[in-house]
Amino acid sequence: MPHSKTSLSTTSLPSSPPHRLPSDPSLIRPQNLSPLVPANKTPASTESLTIKVSDFLNGAVPGVLHLPHSFIQLQAGLSNRLRTAAILLSGASGGLVGPSSIYLGLATKLASLRDGIPTLRLDYRYPARNKYCVADVLAAMNYLENTHSVSRFVLVGWSFGGAPVFTVGGSDPRVVGCATVASQTAETEGVRRLAPKPLLLMHGTADRTLDAWCSRSLYE
């Protein structure tokens, strides 16, 4: 059994304003990108979004979309692979950059592949409250489907982010794969309904916030 926390969720009603897009440009697009000429790649475009959410609290959730350079040009005849997008979700504090800001580089690299993958770094309106975070994810999926003809999604969540990843992944057929980094176990019952969808669980054994037992438990 773990000796540290297994959950960062909260059930209290939101008492602070919902998250908004940050004003710092370095949180929108990685700075000082070196040219990708040796790999014959073109950096993806980035678009700041405010996606409307229709639920009990309504409002809008901020995000940053990384679009492959060729995505718009080829959109009319996209293959199944190009109709797949990744959505990256942060932990209990929300935000757009993920653990140690790895989402900035990850989103840029995924969208800059030869067959680039549209990648959305999504914040939460009210972090750590899974009910509302799930609504944020569903609103983002609907937005990408309606505006960019994306019909398949891979969800990636860090820490608390495992809760909305597994809740949505276990119930929405548009989700074709899930991955988590140091996921909590609370509110992750949807993991039982994921099969046969691919699942990747990563967790450092020295984690002092959420014990590595959490990911082992999700696997078992």
**Which class of secondary structure composition applies to the elements?**
alpha/beta
Tell me the quaternary state.
Answer: single chain
| SS element count, helices | 5
Strand content: 15-25%
Mean pLDDT comes to 87
Low-confidence sequence ranges: none
- Round the Cα radius of gyration to an integer and report it: 17 Å
* Distance from first to last alpha carbon: 14 Å
Entry summary:
The chain is α/β, with parallel strands linked by helices and 220 residues long. Helix content is 22%, strand content 20%. 43% of the residues are buried.
Fold topology:
Layout: E1 45-52, E2 60-67, H1 71-74, E3 84-89, H2 102-111, E4 119-122, H3 130-148, E5 152-158, H4 162-169, E6 175-181, E7 199-202, H5 213-219
Helix pairs in contact: 3-4
Commentary on this structure:
There is one protein chain. With 220 residues, this protein is of the alpha/beta class. The protein is 22% helix and 20% strand. It has 5 helices and 7 strands. The chain has helices at 71-74, 102-111, 130-148, 162-169, 213-219, and strands spanning 45-52, 60-67, 84-89, 119-122, 152-158, 175-181, 199-202. It is globular.
What are the main properties of this structure?
alpha/beta, 22% helix, seven-stranded mixed sheet, 220 residues
